[in-house]
């Protein structure tokens, strides 16, 4: 009598769910309490001395900190400037990095080895070492005191790391897939867009989130290139708020909440792509 064929064991799936639950619990325990204190502090009435102990529910509750942050710190205009930079720089950076990574994955092995080695050398160069030559170039082009220097690095994929990540992702795809595209007479550009990119969506989601956070929180580049207060981004506006009277700490915390929420939303959207990939 033949035995019944059993399906795949549910243990790996249960283990994966357990690790997801533990990871979510760790994130909640580490990151949620500071965020709650941040929001609670922003809802405190400005001008009052700080409470001797942290309060999750301030008494009285007040939104004056947000009103003053938008008014005194110019956070509304700064937020629009940051959104403009992010909306242009983030998609452009991901687009260029994915194109470069795809091209790198399709090059001859010897050429690929040289380019990868050059990228690793570029990663080892300190970012601060590039401030002076970059400033000289943008000043020569008359682009200082504009938002262009904040967007221009996206034309190079922002970082060689992004290109290498895409290179590894495209290289992991089966070679037969690319051969089938050649049989179908697909151009390299169409192969990248219609076949390659859809198969590396989790990588795109992760790099998009990372690029957005780095762009959104960029402080040094605006500090170097931007002088007009009307062109300040959120990090520079928050720096102005931090110079206020210490008793107005709710105003600064309100600005911090405004700057933090977009990054949290982007990370939440990206983690859904990671957690549900392959389900």
CATH-assigned homologous superfamily: MetI-like
> Helix count?
13
Instruction: Assign an overall shape.
Output: globular
Question: Uncertain regions: pLDDT < 50 for 5+ in a row?
Answer: 1-5
Strand content: under 5%
CATH architecture: Orthogonal Bundle
What does this structure look like?
- By secondary structure, this protein is mainly alpha-helical.
- The protein has a single domain, classed as MetI-like (MetI-like fold, Orthogonal Bundle).
- 69% of the residues lie in helices and 0% in strands.
- It has helices spanning 11-42, 64-72, 75-106, 109-123, 131-140, 148-151, 160-171, 175-183, 188-199, 201-216, 220-225, 234-242, 249-275.
- The two termini are 36 Å apart.
- Residues 1-5 have low confidence and may be disordered.
In short:
This protein is mostly helical and 279 residues long. Helix content is 69%, strand content 0%.
List keywords for this structure.
globular, MetI-like fold, mainly alpha, transmembrane helix, about 280 residues, cell membrane, membrane, 13 helices, disordered N terminus, MetI-like, about 70% helix
